[in-house]
Write a structure and sequence with these properties.
mainly alpha; about 220 residues
Length: about 220
């Protein structure tokens, strides 16, 4: 019964992740086009977009311990017992850091928390990428090829999130200050829309990765 519940939660989280991404992308494009709104209204909408973006991060973090728990129950992962418990503890700590970064983003502590959040993601990109690649090449620590590929693909999935953040930073540096001051002209609006379009292409890559991860888990083709 526990395995079935975790499997159900894992599938639900993947749908939650994809659905949230689609909503955020639609809202971002609307905010970029809504030049008829005042600067204050557009920034209020943008803040709402960032609030909705937390759903994506919730799902991303939750998918890690859920997926590794399923792999452990199937006998396909060396992370069992206390090691699996440690994965859950570290995931909860990451969850706390992610929310603290969001809630404190407009305070002096915000940039420091954001820097730590980026560092955590760099470590996880390396950990999943290396362990997945080594498993594909040697059969250890994850013996099943489909699971090893899933683990490997988590690395570019997390990297896509950093790619989107890169374009968000660009918007804050080159467009959003003028929009907030209600002095944005065609150049600033074009830059804002350009960053959203480029971030969308990163999201397309992420969606392909997530669909592939889901297919590997469902089909277990090799």
């Amino acid at each position: 019964m526990t395995y079935s519940l975790v499997l159900w939660a894992h599938v639900l989280v993947m749908g939650y992740w994809l659905g949230s991404e689609l909503v955020i992308n639609a809202l971002s494009h609307y905010c970029g086009r809504a030049t008829w709104l005042t600067g204050r209204q557009r920034m209020d909408l943008w803040d709402f977009v960032l609030d909705v973006d937390q759903h994506v991060r919730n799902a991303m973090i939750m998918s890690v311990p859920l997926g590794l728990s399923l792999a452990a129950w199937m006998g396909l992962s060396p992370l069992t017992g206390p090691w699996l418990a440690l994965v859950w503890v570290l995931s909860i700590a990451w969850f706390w850091l992610m929310w603290a970064t969001h809630l404190k983003r407009k305070t002096p502590l915000g940039p420091k928390l954001a820097a730590w959040d980026w560092r955590v993601r760099y470590v996880l990109i390396a950990a999943f990428g290396i362990s997945g690649a080594v498993s594909l090449a040697t059969g250890w620590p994850f013996a099943s090829k489909w699971l090893a590929l899933k683990v490997f693909l988590i690395a570019p999935a997390i990297a896509c999130g950093l790619g989107v953040r890169y374009y968000i930073r660009m918007a804050y540096e080159r467009a959003l200050p003028a929009i907030a001051a209600d002095t944005a002209g065609p150049e600033e609006n074009a830059i804002f829309q350009m960053t959203i379009v480029r971030a969308t292409w990163v999201l397309v890559g992420l969606w392909v990765i997530l669909f592939t991860i889901g297919a590997l888990g469902a089909l277990k083709p090799f």
